[in-house]
Amino acid sequence: LQAAAMLLTYSSKPVAAIAYEVGYETPSSLTKAFRGRFGISPSAFRDNNTVLRRDHVTLLFNLKETDMELEPEIRQMEDIKVIYIRSTGDYNNVGPVWERLCSFAAKRNLFGPGTLMFGLSHDDPEITDTARLRYDACLSVEGDVKGEGEVGVKEVEGGRYAVFVHKGPYRNLQSSYNDIYRNWYPQSGHEFRDAPPLEIYLNDPAKTRPEDLRTEIWIPVESRL
Predict the structure, then answer these.
(1) Which of 126, 107, 108, 123 is nearest to 178 (CA)?
(2) Integer Cα distance of 138 and 151 in angstroms
(3) What is the pLDDT of residue 13?
(4) How many CB atoms lie within 10 A of CB 128?
(5) Neighbour-count burial of 8, counting CB atoms closer than 10 A to its CB (0-12 exposed, 13-18 middle, 19+ buried)
(6) Tell me, what's the pLDDT at 64?
(7) Helix, strand, or coil here: 79?
(8) Residue 222 — φ and ψ, nearest 5°?
(9) Is 189 in contact with 223 (CB distance < 8 Å)?
(10) Euclidean distance between CA atoms 222 and 192, whole angstroms
């Protein structure tokens, strides 16, 4: 249902196509479940959010919420094997999860010169309750690595991404996402793919001032054309 709400808000896919994409056997099944969760039909939800999004874009045209450059680089990413820990709750409180994951990796000598540290944000804080927000802290690994306890192993699916660079504290990342979704996306010529966005952290927050942090935001996309 959260995925359906995201697609209704930010994509132009028909309601029926969204129903099948997120796992419902019929559009009517999605409508019933969606109304039970959000108190409104998928079509009405889309209409309301389209008006809000259009008004927001009109008011903020050329008035971005951050100083992030809204001209992304389009990149193709290969599948990546990772170890990860799932966090549920406020995206601003994932520090302890990263500490545990890095401790696990350090004890097993899993860090290397090409190790990537990135997060997978599965839910939109403007749609999903804060207590239900899902975030995966991920470290790229190679070879035969096994999970243990809360640490899992999986393949992060590659594909086509629009890559932006967020400058500044992590707590301001949502403003950059707002700029992307509300100001870049409607005019971009792209559709969202069914995958979570990635946040690749380019420097060490323990050694970097918050205002100097750099984060790549990877938005999974496909061409509308």
Answers:
(1) 126
(2) 10
(3) 86
(4) 16
(5) buried
(6) 45
(7) coil
(8) -145, 155
(9) yes
(10) 6
What pLDDT does residue 108 have?
A: 94
How far apart CA 138 and CA 83 sit, in angstroms, is 6
Reported as type and span, the H/E element at residue 179 is none
d(CA 164, CA 67): 11
Own/partner pairs, 128-132, CB within 8 angstroms, 24+ separation: 128/2, 130/89, 130/90, 131/88, 131/89, 132/2, 132/88
According to DSSP H, which parts of 108-179 are helical? 173-178
Distances (CA, A) of 117 to 74, 129, 183: 20, 26, 27
Q: What is the pTM of this model?
A: 0.78
Over the chain (225 residues), the average pLDDT of each successive run of 10 is 83 89 92 90 84 43 56 94 96 94 96 93 86 95 93 94 95 90 84 88 92 94 73
Encoded tokens for 163:
């890559």
Q: What is the CA radius of gyration of the chain?
A: 18
DSSP 9-64: HH----HHHHHHHTT-SSHHHHHHHHHHHHSS-HHHHHHHHHHHHHHHHHHHTT--
- Alpha helices of 90-180 — where are they, by DSSP H? 95-107, 173-178
CB atoms within 10 A of CB 29: 12
Q: Which residue matches tokens 């039970």?
A: 36
Using a 10 angstrom Cβ sphere, with 0-12 exposed, 13-18 middle and 19 or more buried, the burial of residue 117 is buried
